Amino acid sequence: MFCLVLAVCGVGAMGETPLMLVATKIKNLMQKGNQDAMPGYDLIRSEVVQDSIPTLEELGLEFMHKISLFKKLKPKNEAEERFVTGLKKFEILHVLALIYGLILDEKNEDHQGVLTLSQVVQDYLKVLDFIYTPLIQAHQAGLDLSIYATTLSKNPLKPSDFKDLIQYFLKNEQVSPKPVLPVQAFFKDFRVAELAYDLTQHHFYNTLLGPSIGWDYADAYILVKFNAGKEFGEDNVVSQEDYTDLYKLYYAHYATRLLEFLDESYYYTFDDPLSSPELDIGILQKHPHLCLKPKYLRQKFQQACLDIFEKHTYDAQALQHSLQNLPLVSINNAPCLYNTQGKWQKIKSKDILCLALQKIP
Predict the structure, then answer these.
(1) What is the pLDDT of residues 2-11, one digit of tens each?
(2) CA–CA distances in Å: residue 153 to residues 3, 53, 247, 248, 265
(3) Are residues 151 and 205 in the same domain?
(4) Count of structural domains within the chain
(5) Average pLDDT, stretch 327-356?
(6) Residue 267 domain-assigned?
(7) Are residues 297 and 186 located together in one domain of the fold?
(8) Which of 56, 163, 254, 312 has its CA 20 to 30 A from that of 260?
(9) Are 103 and 214 in contact (CB under 8 A)?
(10) 335 shares its domain with 208
């Protein structure tokens, strides 16, 4: 069985790093609000909690500024600055939800001691790496974030579009995939992708990777900062629509990364000599999008992908369909192409599959 948290799988504790010190301050402040709130009242309506939101936002931004990955995201103009600032404020919601989820777990006798704050932060950093590394590398290579934002604003995808695929892999998870097969890497990455998906689904509480999600403080943040939510009896109800309306661009970005990772990925489970059906070159030709994640394929199929692209023996219509909603195309999470006003722009790469893809007319 997959271990529940990355730290148990060999990732060491982060210790008292500057990032963890800020995370601890956030947790302590939320714990205090949770303790001081009037019994019998929803946390979101607590004056103590609502009064803490400005400080939590400051701590949240400080947390974002200390993330190594985000230090590489350097805006080049005011439009990019707005996009990056909005991105970080969007991610504050996820930090609040994960840390408050830990607080709730610590109150639950069945979950006490299962997770630590350090482990939750490590898992969250895995999500950020999955969601943002290709974008940050593309930006460093010349992608204009304001143009990217415009492309995202026209993208019809929503993270909820991938509910069925998430459920498929949850039900068909290979508990002990053969270590010699690349599909093992897919299911390892799926745990991170599933947590990323869960963070886009308001009131989703349990995750495959381990951390629980508690939305009360995130809801309070939305209510205080934007006066969002609906009066429902005596309760202020913040809905999924409130989140998506406020952060549409960033939900669209999450959706494109989920599309890139999940699209037709069940075929990777066929890359097994004992599988029926078994993956073959014909399947790769009909579904060339599989070649964009070669680390989930055995070496012989990685070579077949290269031949398919170089000899143009793939289904061109299928590839076009797979790429039409991707503003940024990656090979093994490294950026390869980005879409600017309907035209693909090349990103400098040494990856042989990326170079072959860039030569496709």
Answers:
(1) 333 443 333 3
(2) 38, 28, 11, 7, 26
(3) yes
(4) 2
(5) 92
(6) no
(7) no
(8) 312
(9) yes
(10) no
Domain assignment of residue 319, given as a range: 276-361
pTM for the model:
0.91
Same domain, 247 and 162: yes
In the numeric block, which tokens belong to residue 357? 């893809």
What is the SS3 assignment for the chain?
CCCCCHHHHCCCCCCCCHHHHHHHHHHHHHHHHHHHCCCCCCHHHCHHHHHHHHHHHHHHHHHHHCCHHHHCCCCCCHHHHHHHHHHHHHHHHHHHHHHHHHHHHHHCCCCCCCCCHHHHHHHHHHHHHHHHHHHHHHHHCCCCHHHHHHHHHCCCCCHHHHHHHHHHHHHCCCCCCCCCCCHHHHHHHHHHHHHHHHCCCCCCCCCCCCCCCCCHHHHHHHHHHHCCCEEECCEEECCHHHHHHHCHHHHHHHHHHHHHHHCCHHHHHHCCCCCCCCCCHHHHHHCHHHHHCHHHCCHHHHHHHHHHHHHCCCCHHHHHHHHCCCCEEEECCEEEEEEECCEEEECCCCCHHHHHHHCCC
Tens-digit pLDDT profile for residues 114-131: 789 999 999 999 999 999
Residue 3 lies in a domain: no
- Residues 122, 254, single domain; the answer is yes
Residues 257, 286: one domain? no
